[in-house]
Amino acid sequence: MAAATTPGKIILFGEHAVVYGQPALAVPVSQVQVQVEVTDASRSGIWIDAPDVNLSSELSRLAPDHPLAAAIKGVFSALNISRYPNLHIQIESTIPVASGLGSGAAVSVALIRALSLAVHRPLPDEQVSALAYDVEKIHHGTPSGIDNTVITYAKPVYFVKDLPAPQGRGAVGEGKTIETFRVAKPFTIVIGDTGLPAPTKEAVADVRKLRQANPERYERLFAAIGSIARAARQAIETGHPEHLGPLMDENHALLQEMTVSSPELDRLTEAARSSGALGAKMSGGGRGGNMIALSEKENAPAVADALSNAGAKRTIITTVH
Ligand code: MEV
């Protein structure tokens, strides 16, 4: 048997602007996870069971552009395996789908790892992430690659798309440069889920259209978000996580201006601030999905309660370290 487990992820700063080359910060969320187990099958074919999404099927019955089919075929093609072995793949996930916690990327990364292990050809992280990125394109259209990256490395990442890798930094497929960064002082984040699916693909496509219609305005918004992400990294690395609160508020206001927030996300961010959070913003694609709030550790349960009272369908308290 071969198995792999991946965490969820949350974007702290820089969503959407990251698609246009600005930096973004994301961290793993270990309270939710995906586990994939691959075993030999006694019958012929590749059998996939993913009870969380009500899927039970043989590979050939999935559409060719089904994300699971694409991930499996991607692994075999990367390994030059044309005669597929008989396998059973069991996928279990506690990551809510379309919530901004990276469920799609977490499934892809765990599946790619477990499958390559099962055929005794474990792939290096760079290749795992690059293959998961190909599947992300099916989910999200024109993704930046931040989700598959933070989930593959399971560490806080400072992510910049499409930059040549400078000396000494890791380059991860398709010209993406990632840097993991040091969290000098741990800090607490409360995640609140609106319970509404985040239509990331549409939100990213809408931002693209808005940018085409008004390039100067959108470049200005992206640049302002990039500056916030850089300042946030510095605050985290120098042991001043309290500076992240105002930066979250600023980043949220810019995302509102970009039209990717929603009344529900605005209500939850307001509720978090009113209950003593140091700052709050939506996280991920927006228009649904999750928001995050920075909180003193002791006050985090009160912030989580306030979020539930304001309509959050679930909350997670997580420490970034
Ligand atoms: C989605 O988790 C984050 C976005 O920036 C899209 C992307 O980076 O691919 C909205």
Strand-helix topology:
Layout: E1 2-13, E2 24-40, E3 46-50, E4 55-58, H1 67-78, E5 87-93, H2 103-118, H3 125-140, H4 146-153, E6 157-160, E7 170-172, E8 176-180, E9 187-193, H5 200-213, H6 215-237, H7 244-257, H8 263-274, E10 279-283, E11 290-295, H9 300-309, E12 314-320
Parallel strand pairs: 3-5
Antiparallel strand pairs: 1-2, 2-5, 2-6, 3-4, 6-8, 7-8, 9-11, 9-12, 10-11
Helix pairs in contact: 1-2, 1-3, 2-3, 2-4, 3-4, 5-6, 6-7, 8-9
The structure holds (R)-mevalonate.
(R)-mevalonate (MEV) is lined by residues 11, 15-16, 18-19, 100, 140, 143-144, 146-147, 200, 204, 284-285.
Query: The biggest beta sheet, please?
Result: 8 strands, mixed
Query: What hetero molecules are bound to the protein chains?
Result: (R)-mevalonate
Integer count of domains: 2
Q: Can you tell me the overall shape? A: globular
Strand content: 25-35%
- Helical proportion, percent range: 25-40%
Number of separate strands: 12
Q: What Rg, in angstroms, do the CA atoms define?
A: 19 Å
Q: Indicate the CATH class of the largest domain.
A: Alpha Beta
Your description of this structure?
It is a single chain. With 321 residues, the protein is of the alpha+beta class. The protein folds into 2 domains: 2-180, Ribosomal Protein S5, domain 2, CATH 3.30.230.10; 187-320, 2-Layer Sandwich (Alpha-Beta Plaits). 39% of the residues lie in helices and 26% in strands. The protein has 9 helices and 12 strands. It has helices at residues 67-78, 103-118, 125-140, 146-153, 200-213, 215-237, 244-257, 263-274, 300-309, and strands at residues 2-13, 24-40, 46-50, 55-58, 87-93, 157-160, 170-172, 176-180, 187-193, 279-283, 290-295, 314-320. The strands form 2 sheets. Strands 1, 2, 3, 4, 5, 6, 7 and 8 form an 8-stranded mixed sheet that branches. Strand 7 and strand 8 (176-180) form a beta hairpin. Helix 1 runs parallel beside helix 2 (103-118) and helix 6 runs antiparallel to helix 7 (244-257). It is globular, with a radius of gyration of 19 Å. Residues 164-174 have low confidence and may be disordered. It binds (R)-mevalonate. (R)-mevalonate is lined by residues 11, 15-16, 18-19, 100, 140, 143-144, 146-147, 200, 204, 284-285.
